[in-house]
Structure formats: C-alpha cells, structure tokens
C-alpha cells in the first residue's frame, strides 16, 4: 500500500531501534571480559580476535546509530522528545567507543598487567561491565513504557533500575581509587611509559561506568518529561 504524508508524519517508532543500539553497545562492552582474560594469559592471537569482535560490534552499533538518525521522524507524533532521544543515542555511542579504545590500546601495546594489579583490575572491570548491563536492561524497558503511556507500575520498575546505576558507578569509583594506589606503589619498579598507559586504561575502564551512569541520567530526564 502506498504511503501518505500523514502516515509519514508518524514514521516508525524510534524506541526499538534505540534499544537495538544499546544492546549492541553492551555486547561490545561485555567482550572486554574475555578480552582481558586473554590479556592476562598473554594469548595475543586470541586477544586480537576478540578485539576484532569488539570493533565489529562497535561498527554495527555505528550503523544502527546512523540509521536511527536518518529515519528519526521529524513530525509531531514522537512519544518522547526528538532531542532527548538523540542525546541518549549519543551517550550510548560514547560507551561503545570507549570499549573499542580500551581494546585498541591494550592490544596495540601488548600491555601486561602486573600481578599486583591484575586481580583488582578484573574485579573493577566486571563491576564496570555490570553498570553497562544495568543501563542496557533499563533501556530495553522503553518499549514496555511506551505501551503503558509512560505511566503506571512499569515506570517505577524502570526508575528503580536507573537508581541502581549510580550506586554501581560509585562503587567503581572506590575501586578505581584503590587501583591507582596499587599502581602508585609500583611506579618505581615499572617503566614510566607503562605506568602512564596503565593509569590511562584504568581511567578509561572507569569511564565505562561513567557513560552507563550518563545513560541512566538521560533516561531519567526523558521519563521526567
């Protein structure tokens, strides 16, 4: 059946594409788990394969982002603000980019985590991935919210998910501080360039939880409107 200008005003719902993008973003972040497990074992061929997977997932997320931007309706019948959706999409995109950056630098330098750092870093990384998972879970409730008109018990469920993200992020901040102290104690025994990149990877890994918190913040703003 031919489309009409009236039907084009409605366009397709942007909610499911936004959810699909976030799911792809989290898949990208989640791959950092096996990535660093291989790094600890210095299995560099395996590390490279996982890094390629992370790049592929990030590229697929980019494709979804571009498609959503191109087809986001400009008419009056969006269930939420177009600018709010675009800002949420941008924050999700930065999360995937950060995961790609981490994997690229670690593989490029074939970074070896010192034994004194590795256990705490892995726990820290898992907690940061958990923040991404929580953000993904919250975003994937948006279609349910749309069906209920952004009201009722469903919105309370999503709000409770959102409030959990800052708690996880604060925990990652505490873990990041402890990790920096460990690295500080090792500085004299490591090459200065290695120390610099080690601090950078710790900072970028903590940035995963920061971006996840920003996603929660943007989602909260969207719900408030």
SSE layout and pairings?
Elements lengths: L4 H6 L4 H16 L1 H9 L3 H28 L10 H28 L8 H22 L2 H6 L5 H34 L5 H33 L1
Helix pairs in contact: 2-4, 2-5, 2-6, 3-4, 3-6, 4-5, 5-9, 6-8, 6-9, 8-9
Please summarize what this structure is:
With 225 residues, the chain is mainly alpha-helical.
Could you characterize the architecture of this molecule?
By secondary structure, the protein is mainly alpha-helical. The chain has 9 helices and no strands. It is globular, with a radius of gyration of 20 Å.
CATH architecture heading: Up-down Bundle
- Given the C-alpha coordinates, what overall shape results? globular
In sequence order, what are the helices and strands, one letter per element? HHHHHHHHH
Provide the CATH superfamily: Phosphate transport system protein phou homolog 2, domain 2
Mean pLDDT: 88
Fraction of residues in H or I helices:
over 70%
CATH class membership = Mainly Alpha
Unreliable residue stretches: 1-11
In terms of structural class, how would the helical and strand content be classed? mainly alpha
Characteristic key phrases:
9 helices, mainly alpha, 225 residues, globular, disordered N terminus, single chain, 0% strand, Methane Monooxygenase Hydroxylase, Chain G, domain 1
